[in-house]
Amino acid sequence: MKPIGIATWTALSVAACLYAVTTLWTLPAIAQASGGLPPFCMRPGGYDFGEAHAFLTALSEKGRTLYLGPQQRLDLVFPAALALGLGLALYRLAPLNRFWKLFFAAIPVAGMVFDYLENAAVRAMLVAGPSALQPEQVETASRITTAKSVFDSAAYGLLLLFLILWAVRRRRGASASRD
User: Fold this and answer.
1) 27 DSSP assignment
2) Residue 75 located in a structural domain
3) Where does the chain cross the membrane (predicted)?
4) Angle between helices 135-178 and 72-93 in degrees, nearest 10
5) CA dist list (Å): 100 to 14, 18, 47, 74, 96
6) How far apart are CA 145 and CA 120, in angstroms?
7) Does a structural domain hold residue 98?
């Protein structure tokens, strides 16, 4: 396997492992610590002030500690691993010229940037707590969460599309070699 393939699979594997840890441990524990309300990062369509306030009010101290500690630490590595893995995969699979390959590879990088901005915005809301929470703060955080979701979804969709195109080209190539 070529070094770019190794890097792609390594980054995607790291991202998948971190995603598994967050979806099996930290995010369910945070949701449980808030009476079943989903954490901010699990609201791809965003949230309003009332929803953010309700979450922060319901979140126990244990949940807040888990969100500010292990969840945020896991989310230091996950966005970069995901962006690297998806970006390399999109670059390798895009059936177009170098400009478009780089363009498509940049989409998960934009998702990563918004993920890190989201982490900072969520940290600020968690530190502020429900009593000091500001509507503008929530609106900004919600927009960042939505932007992250849009870029990540676009990257996943493009990866699926390029994998289908790759499989079709491969199948056609195999059929042509048999003829």
Assistant:
1) H
2) yes
3) 76-94, 99-117, 150-168
4) 30
5) 26, 29, 34, 31, 6
6) 11
7) yes
The domain tally of the chain equals 1
pTM for the whole structure = 0.92
- Give a yes or no: residue 174 inside a domain: no
Amino acid at 76: L
Measured from the Cβ of residue 110, the count of other Cβ atoms closer than 10 Å reads 17
Digit-by-digit pLDDT tens for the chain (179 residues) are 889 899 999 999 999 999 999 999 999 999 999 999 999 999 999 999 999 999 999 999 999 999 999 999 999 999 999 999 999 999 999 988 999 999 999 999 999 999 999 999 999 999 999 999 999 999 999 999 999 999 999 999 999 999 999 999 988 877 666 65
Give the DSSP letter string of 113-150: HHHHHHHHHHHHHHHHHHHH--HHHHHHHHHHHHHHHH
Cα distances (angstroms) measured from residue 103 to each of 86, 158, 159: 13, 12, 13
**Residue 13 falls within a domain, yes or no?**
yes
